[in-house]
Each structure stands twice: as C-alpha cells, then as structure tokens.
Amino acid sequence: MNTSNDNRLEELEEVVQHTVNKVKELENRKVELPEIRLPNYTRLLEAIETELKRVQHSYPVDRIDKQVKDFKTLVDKIPDRIQYQHRHYFQDGSKGYIVGMIGMILLTVLSVGLMVTSWIDNRKMTDNSVKFRMIRQYYPVAARWANKEYHRNPEMATKNVDRLEAKQEADNEGKSTAAERELK
Question: Where is this region: Disordered (predicted)?
Fold first, then answer.
C-alpha cells in the first residue's frame, strides 16, 4: 500500500513539474501585436468645433429649451387610442374586378352544371352498357343483329327505335285506359 502511494506521489510531482515548465514557456513567449494605424482627425474635429461655436451664438439655449417644452406638451396631447371608422367603397377602378369576379362565378356555376350533367349521362351510359352486355351474353344472335343494323344506317336505326318506343307507349296507355274502363 505504501508503494502505491509513493507511485501516485511521483506521478503528481511529474504533473506539477510539467505544468511549471509549460507556464515558464508561456511567460518567455513574446506576443506580437498587429500594428494599428489611427487616422488623423484633427482637421475634421477643428471644423466641427468652429461650426458648433458658430451655431451656439446664433441659436440660444433658452429658445431650444422652449421648443423642447412645446414639443412635449404637443406629444402629451396625443391620445393613446385614436378612434377611426373603416369604410369600404367601390371606385371606378374596381369595376373591372367586380365584373371579373362575376364572370368567374358564372364560369364556375356553368362548369359545375356541365360536370353534373356529364356525370348523370355517364351513369345512364354505364347502365345501358351493362344492359347491352347482358343481352349480348344471353342472346348473342339478337345482339349481333342490333349491332349490324345500327352500323348499316345509324339514323334509320334511331328513327325505327323511336317509332317502336312511341308505338309501345301508346299501346301501354291504351291498355291502362281499357283497364280503368273495365273497373268502372
């Protein structure tokens, strides 16, 4: 145990000796400062001094004090809060903006209307597409016949379908009125 304390003591002495050497080295080092050059302001300071002397004679201190006091009283009269009314109004230059905004609103409304109409039409077309695909699956001969007739003459096919639908609707109305007469 005594040897470990001796070893520690020797280590501490070495550290102290090393620190002393470093401090001596730093003390012996010469510090070189950069050269600082100050400009010569003597002529400028003399010009300022002569101007101050000239102004001092032409403007008395009493008058400056009176102006400062007057300024303070004016500042004290300013209220902490100032009441004001904020108004909006249209000028001649804003007419173009108003017309532009109305145009943009109309364009938006028309776009939304067209979108809704297109959406409804797409739903109908999707429904008709599913119906026609069902007919094609269950009755392939009739579906081929309908495609062939339509592609030969689309206008005539449209007229024939309209005529047949009108005839069917008239028959249905006739049947419903006949059923009503029988009930009476």
Answer: 156-184
For residue 87, tell me if it sits in a domain: no
Type of residue at 122 = N
* Number of structural domains found in the chain: 1
Note whether residue 138 is domain-resident: yes
Does this model's pTM top 0.85? My answer is no
Q: Is residue 38 part of a domain?
A: no
Q: ∠ CA 169-131-161 to the nearest 5 degrees?
A: 35
**What does the alpha-carbon distance between residue 123 and residue 129 come to, in Å, rounded to a whole number?**
10
Walk along the chain (184 residues) and give the pLDDT tens digit of each residue: 577 878 888 888 898 899 989 888 888 887 777 777 778 888 888 898 888 877 766 667 777 788 888 888 888 888 777 777 888 777 777 888 889 999 999 999 999 999 999 999 999 999 988 988 898 899 999 999 998 989 999 999 999 999 999 999 998 888 888 888 887 6
DSSP state of 81: S
CB neighbours of residue 146 within 10 Å: 16
The answer as to whether 148 is a domain residue is: yes
> Are residues 157 and 165 in contact, defined by beta-carbon separation less than 8 angstroms?
no
CA distance 62 to 142: 116
Count of residues making up the chain: 184
Q: Residue 119 is part of which domain span?
A: 108-183
